[in-house]
Amino acid sequence: MGRETIEWLQEELHKVKKWEQDQSDLWFWEKLGRIPFKILDKWTPKFIHEKVGVLLDEMGNYIQTGGSYLSSIEKLNDYYPGKQFSGLEDVFDLYIVEMDKAAENIAKGRKKLATFQGASTGFGGIFTLTIDIPLLLGLQLKTLQDIAICYGYNPNEKSERIFIVKVLQFVSSDYVGKQTILSQLTHYNMPVGEEKREVVSEIQGWREVFFTYRDQFGWKKLFQMIPVAGLIFGAFTNRSAINDIAEAGQMLYRKRRIIERLTAGDSPPPL
């Protein structure tokens, strides 16, 4: 396998930027999709509101300490069968296409798990929806963390957990929000300094992550409140949620790695 040329890296970066531009196509549907949940918000049972409210504290705890959601970098060798790594620094010597393949395998496995989970919790309608909400959030966080590990980033670091929450917010935001977040995340490609500290300070407003997440998440779960029929809706919405998260995570982490290599002006030697 040859070296990753500067031309190839620039071409791949262009593909990621094209994907970012395509996210504007989601704006109308996202706006439309929030309407039914806003209308029915007052009809939603109190215990559902309370369960969703718990996620606010959980998200804060995750940012600060990782809580019970942290993925272990010890699983690194499982993501790359046939290779033996002593740490994340060994991932730096891989080709980006190898990182992509590992991330895609994780996404495939998590989508299957999300489909089964959504169907299981959707079968009981509103009574099992309270179980599904925290399970899905946990699966989303772990999926993003494992993708981060595939690209050589350590989710145990607070700055990376902030990046992950920003990716979660990106998926839940409208077009304007997406553009703002993309602008913020470009700072992660810069040397540690004022730019990076500015991004970290922005997490003081992390409650917006919860509210945008709730608005988009809520309407998708609306039909899952119907017993038995919720099985179909639950399977579909959970699979869709993980698919969106995995795609955004892979693209944005891939972009970081490509830009870092372009900035360094080099690529790893042939293996």
Strand content: under 5%
Secondary structure: number of strands: 0
Summing up helix and strand content along with how strands pair, one would put the structural category as: mainly alpha
Which stretches are poorly predicted, pLDDT < 50 over at least 5 residues? 26-37, 192-205, 267-271
Q: What's the alpha carbon Rg, rounded to whole Å?
A: 19 Å
The helix-strand sequence is HHHHHHHHHHH
**Which term fits the overall shape?**
globular
Total helices: the number is 11
Any descriptors?
271 residues, mainly alpha
Task: Report on this structure.
With 271 residues, this protein is mostly helical. It has helices at residues 6-22, 27-40, 46-65, 76-79, 96-122, 126-150, 158-172, 175-185, 194-201, 207-221, 230-264. The longest helix is centred in the last third of the chain and has 35 residues, at 230-264.
Helix-strand layout with pairing:
Blueprint: H1 6-22, H2 27-40, H3 46-65, H4 76-79, H5 96-122, H6 126-150, H7 158-172, H8 175-185, H9 194-201, H10 207-221, H11 230-264
Short summary:
With 271 residues, this protein is mostly helical. 70% of the residues lie in helices and 0% in strands.
